[in-house]
Design brief:
The chain is an all-alpha fold. The protein is built from 6 helices and no strands. It starts with 7 loop residues before the first helix and ends in a 9-residue tail after the last helix. The mean pLDDT is 87.
């Protein structure tokens, strides 16, 4: 939205501010809800908001920051299933972690900002820029679902039985466990994102519109 109005320095500065928010929310516990076997998050929201303001490239950078923050949090504040997010946490019953944790931690989060931007751009084109709130809400919903669906399906793909064993659930219900988490955590996260993203963007746009404009050079 503002990437064509702001110069590179200003875009980088705003990106750094959102990155700081992600780390602050991660390590103060504001952005992560510590449940026994899963840690639902609101950290995708700064990624989505940043992407909508600055575009997919900066959204991807914020997604990388989200992934890095979640990996570090899993490493330094491990829970029963932190091995799926950090290669530095040993898998249960072994003395080593898995490099697949990098994929779980980073790829879905990088895609959050990218998917959110293109969903916004698609809705904005269809609606001819008349209902920005609808486009922002769709982007918030899509970004949150991208995070939830990819993280949980990557966990299922790379860590299925190990993850299920850590949760002390029968192996025959691995995928049903994934679906239940999507229902219990993913859907509320997505609805919350669809509500909060337009509200946050609207407030930021109101503030930004009063600031002097910096053209790209």
């Amino acid at each position: 939205m503002y990437r064509n109005r702001w110069n590179h320095t200003k875009c980088v500065t705003v990106t750094a501010m959102f990155a700081a928010i992600i780390f602050l929310f991660t390590f103060t516990g504001i952005g992560i809800i510590p449940l026994p076997f899963l840690r639902p998050t609101t950290l995708h929201i700064p990624v989505i908001v940043g992407a909508l303001l600055l575009g997919p490239k900066y959204g991807a950078a914020l997604g990388f920051t989200f992934g890095l923050a979640s990996m570090l949090f899993a490493t330094f504040f491990p829970g029963a299933t932190s091995f799926v997010f950090s290669p530095f946490i040993d898998l249960p019953g072994t003395s080593n972690g898995s490099l697949m944790a990098f994929i779980v931690a980073f790829i879905p989060r990088i895609l959050v900002g990218i998917v959110a931007w293109y969903v916004f751009a698609g809705f904005d084109k269809i609606l001819r820029s008349k209902k920005k709130a609808v486009s922002w809400a769709a982007a918030g919903l899509a970004g949150a679902l991208t995070n939830t669906l990819l993280v949980l399906h990557f966990i299922f793909l790379f860590f299925g039985e190990t993850w299920n064993a850590a949760r002390a659930t029968p192996s025959e219900v691995i995928y049903w466990g994934i679906l239940s988490l999507i229902s219990i955590n993913g859907i509320p996260e997505s609805i919350m994102s669809a509500i909060l993203v337009p509200a946050i963007i609207s407030a930021l746009v109101a503030v930004i519109s009063r600031m002097p404009e910096t053209r790209k050079v």
